[in-house]
């Protein structure tokens, strides 16, 4: 399914475009399609080291995010997306960089298989919250007051919790029920010391959804 999804995404790319790419297996397939296709002068911006290395191995030009102010289109996966194109992007802990890439894109497209599409976000995944170190305890207490179970994310092979490339800790805030996704994201983002969250609300222009039978469905923003 991931390959079919990537093939549908490839058809949206034109010669000379500067595109944003996230991480994950579907993006790896998309890189292969770009490499095998007839497109010229494609440049890539990505927050993912694995994606950057894959592009380099296929001879695709990668430019730093800080040198770019706009992108023609950007593609990324997510943990879950709803029919209104609200998405949770908690897994990679690079959501701040991913949001920057999404904001620069004229069109931001999510690539998912049908198992990740829900009518309304269920929050089976926690909301990842990046915070400046000095605000760690304060932000944790504020999230707990909002009803979340909060933990500093840990990773295998590392002593202590996960830190971003910018040196900021990442908290996982688990919510049981959320009635208003946009309101939740605003409340968390307004806490002093919060850098960003993994909730993407009102950002995606469309989602390309791969079905088990090999077909793809495109959902446009309402």
From TrEMBL:
Coiled-coil residue spans: none
Which Pfam families does this one have? Rib_5-P_isom_A
- Entry GO MF terms: ribose-5-phosphate isomerase activity
Keyword set for this entry? Isomerase
Spell out the Gene3D superfamilies in the cross-references: 3.30.70.260, 3.40.50.1360
InterPro entries registered for this protein in UniProt: NagB/RpiA_transferase-like, Ribose5P_isomerase_type_A
Alphabetical GO biological process terms: D-ribose metabolic process; pentose-phosphate shunt, non-oxidative branch
List its EC numbers: 5.3.1.6
Q: Name one GO cellular component term.
A: cytosol
What top-tier enzyme class does this entry carry? isomerase
Name of the protein:
Ribose 5-phosphate isomerase A
């Amino acid at each position: 399914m991931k390959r079919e999804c990537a093939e549908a995404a490839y058809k949206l790319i034109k010669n000379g475009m500067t595109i944003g790419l996230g991480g994950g297996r579907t993006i790896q397939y998309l890189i292969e399609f770009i490499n095998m296709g007839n497109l010229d002068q494609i440049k890539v911006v990505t927050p993912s080291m694995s994606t950057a290395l894959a592009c380099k191995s296929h001879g695709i030009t990668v430019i730093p995010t800080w040198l770019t102010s706009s992108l023609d289109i950007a593609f990324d996966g997510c943990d879950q997306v709803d029919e209104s194109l609200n998405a949770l992007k908690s897994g990679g802990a690079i959501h701040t960089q991913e949001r920057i890439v999404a904001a620069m894109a004229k069109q931001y497209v999510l690539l998912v298989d049908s198992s990740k599409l829900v009518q309304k976000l269920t929050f089976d995944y926690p909301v990842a919250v990046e915070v400046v170190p000095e605000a760690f305890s304060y932000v944790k207490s504020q999230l707990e007051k909002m009803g979340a179970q909060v933990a500093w994310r840990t990773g295998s092979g590392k002593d202590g919790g996960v830190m971003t490339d910018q040196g900021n800790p990442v908290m996982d805030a688990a919510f049981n029920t959320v009635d208003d996704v946009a309101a939740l994201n605003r409340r968390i983002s307004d806490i002093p010391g919060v850098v960003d969250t993994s909730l993407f609300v009102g950002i995606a222009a469309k989602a390309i959804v791969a079905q088990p039978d090999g077909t793809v469905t495109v959902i446009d923003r309402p």
